[in-house]
Specification:
The chain is mainly β. It contains one helix and 16 strands.
């Protein structure tokens, strides 16, 4: 891929209807749909249809280390662990205790501490805090995807830190950490330090991989359900796969490769033969480098 911008492209992230890129000089540029100001230029004009990405102006925003465009809003993470959001706000997804749209990046969202990991959802967002590794989520909660045991949106009339940590881990897993999180729109899955996965949110197609249908998190807490082996990334399906490290010829053969799959017609994931080889977690490629 050839970069034609004024600096080298370091991060490229895609939302539903808009995209954003970070560059080595800390510049941020976004393009695509802009109905709610999700591009961050202070207006609602779409970009990218009549101009090149290289010609776009730099967005007036803090220096971000990560950018997460979602459905109609965008959030960015700074090196200091602050999260700033803009775009559509009617579901509280910006986290400013308001339902107003914002055409420019807002102030730091109140999350209860510095953020180590930012994950943008379809109409919600989640973070893993740096100090204690706890999980916080805010925005749309129609399917219980925020994980608080109800369907009340968070961020529309209150700040996200007032909700406290998502009660994700049962007592039996109190010794493990949340190391990563992926979201598939209205459902999420968390990868734990022991290699297990917990999923919650929308589940009308079995996308949580629990062997049952029915949303999780809307009238029960995520810590009340068992762990599974599937993370979420796309809107209506969730999946993971493991690849054996180079060890034995058998492990590299189709019969020895471990893989996990799921479909909308099956509530329980099916797993092929496993090996004793080390496993590699794979979810999606979020950055591209020139």
């Amino acid at each position: 891929m050839t970069c034609r911008s004024r600096a080298t492209l370091t991060t490229l992230e895609l939302g539903a209807y808009h995209s954003c890129a970070l560059f080595e000089d800390d510049a941020l540029r976004c393009w695509g749909a802009n109905d709610y100001g999700q591009l961050g230029y202070g207006d609602t004009y779409d970009r990218g249809g009549t101009e090149s990405i290289a010609s776009l102006a730099t967005i007036d925003a803090p220096a971000f280390t990560d950018i997460q465009p979602a459905f109609y809003h965008t959030c960015g993470l700074t090196e200091g662990g602050e999260v700033h959001c803009w775009g559509q706000g009617e579901l509280g997804q910006l986290g400013y205790a308001s339902v107003a749209n914002m055409l420019l990046p807002g102030e730091a969202v109140s999350l209860g501490g510095a953020v180590a990991r930012l994950i943008g959802g379809g109409e919600h967002a989640c973070v893993i805090l740096e100090d204690d590794g706890s999980l916080r989520c805010w925005g749309s909660n129609h399917y219980g995807q925020l994980g608080y045991g109800d369907t009340e949106n968070i961020g529309d009339g209150e700040l996200p830190d007032t909700a406290g940590p998502v009660p994700l881990l049962p007592e039996s897993l109190s010794h493990v950490d949340i190391v990563d999180l992926v979201t598939g729109g209205p459902h999420n899955c968390a990868l734990l330090s022991n290699g297990e996965v917990m999923c919650w949110g929308r589940n009308d197609y079995g996308q949580l991989g629990l062997g049952q249908f029915g949303n999780i998190g809307d009238d029960e807490l995520p810590d009340s359900v068992p762990t599974v082996g599937i993370p979420a990334r796309r809107r209506r399906s969730a999946w993971a796969f493991t690849t054996p490290a180079p060890c034995s010829p058998a492990a590299r053969s189709p019969a020895g490769a471990a893989a996990t799959t799921a479909s909308s017609a099956t509530a329980t994931p099916t797993t092929s033969a496993t090996t004793s080889c080390p496993r590699t977690w794979a979810s999606s490629i979020s950055t591209r480098r020139c």
